[in-house]
Write a structure and sequence with these properties.
Elements: E1 2-5, H1 14-22, E2 28-31, H2 45-58, E3 63-66, H3 77-97, E4 101-104, E5 107-108, H4 112-130, E6 139-143, E7 151-152, H5 156-165, E8 172-177, H6 178-183, H7 191-204, E9 210-215, E10 217-218, E11 229-230, H8 238-246, E12 255-258, H9 271-284
Parallel strand pairs: 1-12, 2-3, 3-4, 4-6, 6-8, 8-9, 9-12
Antiparallel strand pairs: 5-7, 10-11
Helix pairs in contact: 1-2, 3-4, 4-5, 7-8
């Protein structure tokens, strides 16, 4: 089992590694910088050194970075240009930090076909501009979406089309989010539903392109197209479905990243610990 959660980098990027070790996680997800701003300060050598030392000490692997929520590779020119610049910076940071994966929400555009083409071309530009020297080097993972508004990526076909149109798909892959696919109309509430969904993913995209999973329950109903994460077993997917999902032989070896809600101010509960305990119990019963 490779279990982790998205953890804070407040106080230094290495702090997410230390926190992950405290939960006995073997993987972790994190932001590479302040994800609410386009501009980012330069990555200091001290930051790189501290991060790699912490990782070596605690053996956390793989590490899954998450791109800024501002990024929209299918946006209008000003936003798209800023997005490409930000992604080039983030992918370069991943290489310097030896981070394996950079997760990206594909983008949003009313015309999905046009958006898919823009995303594929932008990804080619980003990967080429980075001139990755390490092998295998960081890989960009396109995250499945719930399909709110004009978000692209709520159908497996969208992701498959982006991959097929990119000339650099050797550095691309997929991160599957359980809340998102459920809200997008893939029913994973039962073992049978999980099996059918995973078979559909394999047929359309290919399981060889699946490198990570965001593990969440859903506050909103099946096929609602609304993205609202819930604690494991407390949402509308439910324990039975998520248990079947994480124990599926195609899923269990992958890094499972909790993106469940954090405690609000004044709430002393440690929800990462609570959700991790739930997931571990689901796995240990096999």
């Amino acid at each position: 089992m490779t279990l982790g959660a998205h953890l804070s980098i407040s106080g230094g990027m290495d702090k997410a590694i230390v926190a992950a070790a405290g939960y006995e996680f073997t993987t972790v997800a994190l932001f590479l910088r302040n994800q609410t701003r386009w501009a980012a300060s330069a990555l200091k050598e001290e930051t790189v050194t501290d991060f790699k030392k912490a990782r070596d000490k605690y053996g956390i692997s793989p590490i899954v970075a998450h791109g800024s929520y501002l990024v929209n590779l299918a946006g209008e020119k000003i936003v798209r240009d800023k997005s490409i610049t930000a992604m080039i910076e983030d992918l370069s940071r991943c290489e310097k930090l030896s981070i394996e994966y950079l997760v990206l929400h594909p983008g949003s555009r009313p015309d999905a076909e046009e958006g898919i083409d823009l995303i594929a071309k932008a990804l080619d530009e980003i990967i080429t501009a980075c001139e990755i020297k390490s092998e295998p080097g960081p890989r960009i993972l396109l995250e499945t979406t719930a399909g709110q508004g004009s978000c692209i990526g709520y159908r497996f076909e969208h992701i498959a089309d982006i991959l097929s149109r990119s000339s650099r798909n050797d550095r691309l892959g997929v991160c599957l989010d359980t809340c998102h696919i459920f809200a997008a109309g893939y029913d994973i509430r039962t073992a049978r539903g999980c099996e059918e969904t995973i078979k559909t993913f394999d047929k359309i995209i290919g399981l060889d392109k699946l490198f990570a999973v965001h593990l969440n329950d859903s506050k909103k109903p099946y096929d609602s197209r609304v993205d609202r994460h819930e604690h494991i077993g407390q949402g509308l997917i439910g324990l039975a479905g998520l248990k079947a999902f994480v124990n599926h032989p195609a899923i269990r070896p992958l890094p499972l990243i909790l993106e469940t809600p954090k405690a609000k101010k004044g709430d002393p509960a440690d929800y990462d610990a609570i959700n991790a305990k739930t997931v571990r119990s689901m796995l240990s019963e096999q």
